[in-house]
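Budget justification, computational time. The allocation requested in the original proposal was used primarily to generate structure tokens for proteins on the priority list. As evidence of use, we reproduce two of the resulting records. The first is shown immediately below.
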Amino acid sequence: MRFRTLLAVMAAATAVAAGSAHATAAETSVYKVWFQRSGKLWLVKRQQPLTPAPARAAVQALLAGPNLSESDAGVGSQVPAAADLLGLSVANGTATADLSSEFAASGTTAQVRMRLAQLTWTLAQFPTIDRVALQVNGRAVSSLAGVQLPRPMTQDSFAGLLPPITVWNPAIGTALSGSVRVSGNAIVFEGSLHIRILNHNGTTIAHAHTTASCGTGCRGGYTILVPFSVGSDQLGTIVVSDDDTDGNGKPQHQVRVPVVLLS
């Protein structure tokens, strides 16, 4: 499976490079979609030709689920695959999402809360949206599969499901050559972050240290350019971690992003 994914990623990277001369940032819409990985929210990005309705596009991408590379890396979704978006409106900072009855499928409390968190975080990324109201088949609901909805439903309602370290770039499966800009946000001790690039054998071939814009007790952004080189195209991993604050030889938190390293 990983070999097939590598071939698919390399083919996609070639296609993107071939078409990049004809595309500019002004011609595309890039937005966030939130899935889950290891019991926490997981951020992915999606890009498409410019759309006047990016919030609708983001929800449609959420309903479509993770791509092959993401699924291979353990990214999943608590949003039922058969759910459809019936309508979406935004007024006075509230996005009202009308979803089909499949969205209300039964699940544990944790599964349903993750489902609601994915929808809320995906919609509330947009500056015109502060909160989310849910409808199922056109009717407002105050609970879903027996789980009471927060009133209002905001990103803060599900902040506990956000991992200590998020990675916005690179995305899972990205083909990288020469260097990689690693970025995201984190809430870790003193904002200290370590970035390592591992080759296909798991050997560290590059490393760097950076500090998030906010330290202990608050979440801050980070970005750093890390150069690397490999002798042949291969699978690799970007590892973002914090410090070993308890002295057991391991970082408190760690995120691994599978990528393709190009020579």
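The second record produced under the same allocation is shown here.
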Amino acid sequence: MPLSRVRMSDISAAFQGPGGVAVDRAVADFRRGEPIVIREGDRAVLALAVEALSDARLSRFVQLSGSSPSLAMTGRRAALVGLGNGGGGVVRVALSSDPSARSLRDLADPLSRPGVAPTVVAVTAARPTDADTAAVALAKIARLLPAAVTAAAGQVGDRAIDDWARLEGLLVVEATAIIGYPADAARRLTRVGEARVPLAGAENTRIIAFRPSDGGIEHIAIMVGEPDPKEPILARIHSECFTGDLLGSLRCDCGDQLRGAIREIAQQGSGVLLYLAQEGRGIGLVNKLRAYQLQDEGFDTVDANLQLGFDADERIYVPAAEMLRQLGFGKVRLMTNNPLKVEALGHCGVKVVERVAHVFPSNDHNAGYLRTKALKSGHLL
């Protein structure tokens, strides 16, 4: 959801206060399969991640809310199961009767084998700042399937939302805090540690760790040599890839790009590789493995992400810009084949004075993957 459509002052205030802490806790609750209360002004919605659903959890959810659940999901995923026109954003799918946990999972998960489909009454677009949009955003932050069961907290009656939630042991979090969370956490990085780490082919190297304000996985700057901050620095932005970087997977070119960039920077004398904790184009390792399964069934790398309900690329480059700022670099020669990275850094205030091509030979396993990146994602190969 474009943050330009949300009042940034509201988001910032929510994040800096207890709202940001509440989102951290809400992520943990979502991953454990616990319902939470999302407050949107004077409206409260109960939400539960679809991925964690069981019939017992769904039964408790219905009992707590006192109403039939709806399904909040991305518009793209809804269109793929015949429930929308394929637009962006989030939709709310109203159901006519109490569905089973499996039927809801079938709608959200392309790898689920459909059973009896629930009866759909209506599909409506959720507003960019409402609780249903926030519930899907929270599922993404938690690296789960981007879908949630939602229902108005109808049992509250005359009691305050906070009192009712406290009585039921439910966490309350503001919708604006969830929606603004990824961008705000990305902007708030703390330099927490560094050390000299000689690398093969790049012995004069330091590794510098930056921790986001949500306490999540650190982003890493791999600084080779002693670059001059007055000159444009040779830089590579590399999103982590467990399978490619560590295991040497042949399904992608990530490992080649990582090690090749370090070699090239060392040969040029100095530069930095920014290693971002954004596995699978920002969808997380488990969802990336699901995308691999879909690729094995015939989908390409872009369509697999769309099948899961994600955008083709969920990454943000604010952390890279903030790391460069803290390191004292405002201009870069960017090693990339992706013009969108050049554009994204520019929007974040970093001037890209040159795009440096960064291409490696394909193999029998990743030729189609590279071809898709060129045809559908605009990569210059």
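A brief technical remark on that second record: The first helix runs from residue 8 to 16.
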